[in-house]
From TrEMBL:
The lineage of its organism: Bacteria, Pseudomonadati, Pseudomonadota, Gammaproteobacteria, Thiotrichales. The chain holds residues 112 to 578 of 587 of the full protein. Binds 1 FAD per subunit. GO terms for biological process: 2-oxoglutarate metabolic process. Disulfide bonds join 45-50. FAD binds at residues 54, 117, 313, 319-322. Belongs to the class-I pyridine nucleotide-disulfide oxidoreductase family. This is Dihydrolipoyl dehydrogenase. It comes from Methylophaga sulfidovorans. Its cofactor is (R)-lipoate; FAD. Keywords: Disulfide bond, FAD, Flavoprotein, Lipoyl, NAD, Nucleotide-binding, Oxidoreductase, Redox-active center. It catalyses: N(6)-[(R)-dihydrolipoyl]-L-lysyl-[protein] + NAD(+) = N(6)-[(R)-lipoyl]-L-lysyl-[protein] + NADH + H(+).
Length: 467
């Protein structure tokens, strides 16, 4: 045909979904082309998401811990922060990973084409890149074009003092007064970073809780801690106007707990992400896109067009990297003729705040709403020797078990390292473990991991009196 290049498998987008799918398809013997508009591959997660945020959050954790040591008889001087050096260290972490990915693509003979891709037919994609325009034909396609920051049109988004998560990760300066709009995972993670660097933080959230979606009991300890640290947290509050002034941004709030107006030096808008479904000319391929920009798939990640698949943020919630990678594997395997299917029992979520908040499966409100008869175990970390030895006692490990079968149906953990600890609960749920299985599993002492065992024992009734 007229194509400049042909792919057995064309992958659109090089984020965690895209590169995982591309690598898996190549490993299964397919000839793969991956299209990415940016010079650097790795998508949002690697370049402006998971990885740079975790690099900065590690820095924040060290700063916070050093400060806390002053209550344990060890005093450090106030940290001297060289924002340029910190920024360049963070970039070096990102560069190392995206460079590594490029090398992995090369060993697998995955061809990377740089440029903006849009469909021109059910079997061709046009790519406009730095070296002009190319048409790539394909047998199968995997759409992994991800999502972008959601903007609120009435805000003065062009003002340089307005930031989205990408801007906030590019450390420029440390604003004295920072407003974070959105009390979800991304907003709170960036608040954690800027608080540690020295900003005075205000968080405003439309709903009645931070991290709506997580179990209320595990959000409470985080709320308590940030309430002490931050200037203000306004729940049930809307930002109705932002007016740029010479000496700051004048914000108008609507909500009974917030003042009517306050000035801030900078504002981070973290109100969610929008899928890129409407930006790839999917109609030309006959692929259906919802009003919100999502692409629907079946359990094998197939769109309504049988040889075109979609994965990652563009197919729906939760918009998380580990969901994208697992979906990517399934799509590649199905294309290679394997009988794979994406049907996880649960997908864990983690807020890498201080303390971390992690959860999976059902939370207690959901169990109640669905009329499920459950028993719960909630183990306070104040009774964990390991937690106390860290100088922290606010953590909680909570687990829900179905009464009839005893099986684990949900768990939530708050405290340092909760994100690492939740993985055991995910495995337990996937394996159909019950409270006795978890309780009888010998966890090393003294560790934070014991708390899941104790929560299970509490649910079983084999330990009741804690303190
Ligand atoms: P993306 O990573 O969005 O990649 C899509 C790629 O496609 C991009 O590189 C884009 O440039 C490219 N693309 C799009 N359209 C075109 C086109 N037309 N032509 C060519 N290329 C195109 N998730 C976690 O699991 N853990 C975390 O800790 C975490 N932290 C985050 C922190 C922040 C600040 C943000 C913003 C997100 C975070 N996420 C985290 C979410 C995570 O980044 C996403 O879920 C993940 O990147 C989705 O992967 P994806 O492959 O679907 O798409």
């Amino acid at each position: 045909g007229d194509a400049d290049l042909h792919a057995e498998v064309l992958v659109l987008g090089s984020g965690p979904g895209g590169y995982t799918a591309a690598f898996r398809a190549a490993d299964l013997g397919k000839q793969v082309v991956m299209v990415e508009r940016h010079e650097r591959i790795g998508g949002v997660c690697l370049n402006v998401g998971c990885i740079p945020s975790k690099a900065l959050l590690h820095t924040a954790q060290i700063i916070n811990e050093a400060e806390e040591m002053s209550h344990h008889g060890v005093k450090f001087n106030k940290p001297q922060i060289d924002i340029r050096e910190l920024e360049s260290w963070k970039s070096s972490v990102v560069n190392q990973l995206t460079g590594g990915l490029k090398a992995l693509a090369k060993t697998r003979k995955v061809t990377i084409v740089q440029g903006e891709g849009s469909f021109t037919s059910p079997n061709t994609l046009k790519v406009e890149g730095p070296d002009g325009e190319k048409t790539i034909s394909f047998d199968n396609c995997i759409i992994a074009a991800g999502s972008r920051v959601t903007k609120i049109p009435v805000f003065p988004n062009d003002d340089p003092r307005m930031m989205d998560s990408t801007d906030a990760l590019e450390l420029e300066d440390v604003p004295e007064k920072l407003l974070v709009i959105g009390g979800g995972i991304i907003g709170l993670e960036m608040a954690t970073v800027y608080d540690a660097l020295g900003s005075k933080i205000t968080v405003v959230e439309l709903q009645d809780s931070l991290i709506p979606g997580a179990d209320k009991d595990i959000v409470k300890p985080l709320f308590k801690r940030v309430q002490e640290k931050y200037d203000n947290i306004y729940l049930n509050t809307k930002v109705s106007n932002i007016e740029p002034k010479d000496d700051g941004l004048l914000v108008t709030f609507e909500g009974k707990d917030a003042p009517e107006q306050t000035m801030f030096d900078k504002i981070l808008v973290a109100v969610g992400r929008s899928p890129n479904g409407k930006l790839i000319n999917a109609e030309a391929a006959g692929v259906m896109v919802t009003d919100h920009g999502f692409i629907e798939t079946d359990g094998q990640m197939r769109t309504n067009v049988p040889h075109i698949f979609a994965i990652g943020d563009i197919v729906g919630q939760p918009m998380l990297a580990h969901k994208a990678t697992h979906e990517g594997k399934v799509a590649a395997e199905v294309i290679a003729g394997q009988k794979s299917v994406f049907e996880p029992m649960t997908i864990p979520s983690v807020a890498y705040t201080d303390p971390e908040v992690a959860w999976m499966g059902m939370n207690e409100d959901e169990a109640k709403k669905q009329g499920i008869d459950y028993v719960k175990g909630a183990f306070p970390w104040a009774a964990s020797g390991r937690s106390l030895s860290l100088g922290r006692d606010e953590g909680l490990t909570k687990a829900l078990f179905e009464k009839e079968t005893g099986r684990l149906i949900g768990a939530g953990i708050v405290g340092p390292n909760a994100g690492e600890l939740i993985a055991e609960a995910v495995l337990a749920l996937e394996m159909g473990a019950d409270a006795e299985d978890i309780g009888l599993t010998i966890h090393p002492h003294p560790t934070l991991s014991e708390t899941l065992g104790f929560a299970a024992e509490m649910a079983e009734g084999s330990i009741t009196d804690l303190m």
